[in-house]
Amino acid sequence: MLVGLVGKPNVGKSTFFRAATLTQVPVGNYPFVTIKPNHGTAYVKTRCVSEFFGVKSNPRTGYYVNGWRFVGIDLMDVAGLVPGAHEGLGMGNAFLDDLRQANVLIHVIDCAGATNEKGEPIENHTYDPANDIKFLETELDMWYLGIIDKGWEKFAKIIAQTHTDIIKALGKQLSGLGVTENMLLDVLGKKLKLADKPAKDWTQDDKMHLATELRMLTKPMVIAANRVDMPRAKENFDRIVAQFPQYNIIGCSADAEVALREAAKKELIDYVPGDKTFTLKKDLNPAQKQALEFIKKNVLDIFGSTGVQQVLDNAVFDKLKYIPIYPGSIGKLGDSQGRILPDCFLLKQGSTALDFAFKLHSDFGNKFIRAIDVKRKVTVGKDHVLQASDVIEIVADK
Q1: Helix or strand (DSSP H, E) at 77
Q2: Tens digit of each residue's pLDDT (9 = 90 or more) over 292-346
Q3: Could you give the residue ranges of the DSSP H alpha helices within the chain?
Q4: Which of 365, 325, 313 has its CA nearest to residue 349?
C-alpha cells in the first residue's frame, strides 16, 4: 500500500510529511522545495486487540501506547503540482508519473488562502483554496485522458480488426494505473454505457468521462485542509466542506502536529497522535508554554485534534477499506522472543483466511489446511471472511 501526498507547492506538504513520519525533509517558503519524491513510514491508529485479552502488546514494528496500535504505512511526498502539470509545466509530467503506484491520495491545500495558484506566498485570505481542489481534479483527469488518448486511433483500429474485447484491451493498457477489468466492466457497462460502442466511434467526451471515473476509482482522495489555525481559515474550511460534499475534508495543522510530536519526543509532554489534548511533564519556559497554549486554543479546542492522524486513518481505513489482522494462536500470543502480539497486518476488507495465509508467507498459502479464529476459539476454512482486529492462526502442511 502506498499513500501519495499531493498538492501545489508551498502549502505545507513537506511539513505534513514530517509531522506524519518525523523524517527531516527540506521545508521552505518557496515553490519546488521538493523535487524528488520523499518516502517515509507513517502510522495509522487503531484500538489494539490486546485489550480483548487483557494484555499489553509489544510490537515488532510500529508501536503501542495507551491501548492504541500504530501500524506502519508507506507515505510518499510528491513535488508540488501546478496548473498545466499534465502539459509538463513545473516538471508536472515527472511528478504525475511518481503517483502511478499510489493507492490513495492525500491532497494538502492551504486553507488560509495564503498561497496563489503558482505556489507563491501571498497575503492571508486572498486566494480561494476551493480552486486548488478543482485544479487537482482537472490535472489528474487530463493526465488519465492523456494515457487513454495515447495511440488511440491505432488502438481502436486493432480492436476493430481483431474483434478484441474492449474491456480486456483497456485493462491491459491501463493496468499501470491500477485499473482492473472489473472496474472497466462497472464503468463502461453500467455507468457510461460504452462497452458496446466501437472504440473508433468514441468521442473525446466519452474518453474524458472514462478518465474521470477511473481516476476516482484508482486514486481516491482525502483533502487535508492545512493551516486551519491561521486567521480566517475556519471560514474557508466551513465553506469548502459545504461546497465539496463528495470529499472527506479534514481540517489540520501540520505545524502544530510537528510541534507536539517533537515535544513528546523530548519528553516535555505526554501526547498520543490524534488525541485532543496533551499533558505537561516538565516545567517549560515561557516561549514553550505560549506555543503549546496557542495549539491548544486554536487547534485542539476547536477541531478536536491537529487533524494529521485523522487524515492518515481516513485514507487507509475509510477510503481504501483496510482492516487490521493479527497472527497468533490459542494460549500463545507471544513470539519466541516474548513479544506479545508482535505483528499487525493491514488487509483489504473482504480478505479471507487464505489471503492472510499468503500475506504471512507463500508457503502458508500454498500448504493451507485450516485457520483458527483465536478470539472465538473456532476453526475456520480458507474462504472465511476476516473481520477487523481478528487474531488468526494458520495451520499449514509441513
Answers
A1: strand 68-77
A2: 999 999 999 999 999 999 999 999 999 999 999 999 999 899 998 999 999 999 9
A3: 13-21, 50-53, 92-97, 130-149, 152-162, 166-173, 181-184, 204-218, 233-243, 254-265, 286-295, 301-303, 308-313, 353-360, 362-366
A4: 325
Q: How far apart are CA 76 and CA 106, in angstroms?
A: 10
Fold annotation for 325-396: Ubiquitin-like (UB roll) (3.10.20)
Q: Which of the four pLDDT bands, split at 50, 70 and 90, describes residue 98? A: confident
Q: What is the pLDDT of residues 357-380, one digit of tens each?
A: 999 999 999 999 999 999 999 999
Helix (H, G, I), strand (E, B) or coil at 47: strand
Whether CATH 2.60.40.10 fits 2-131+220-317: no
pTM of the model: 0.91
Instruction: Locate the domains of the chain by residue range.
Output: 2-131+220-317, 142-216, 325-396
With cell 488468526, the residue in question is 392
Between CA 134 and CA 330 the distance in angstroms is 52
Architecture of domain 142-216: Orthogonal Bundle (1.10)
Give residue 166's identity as a one-letter amino acid code.
Answer: I
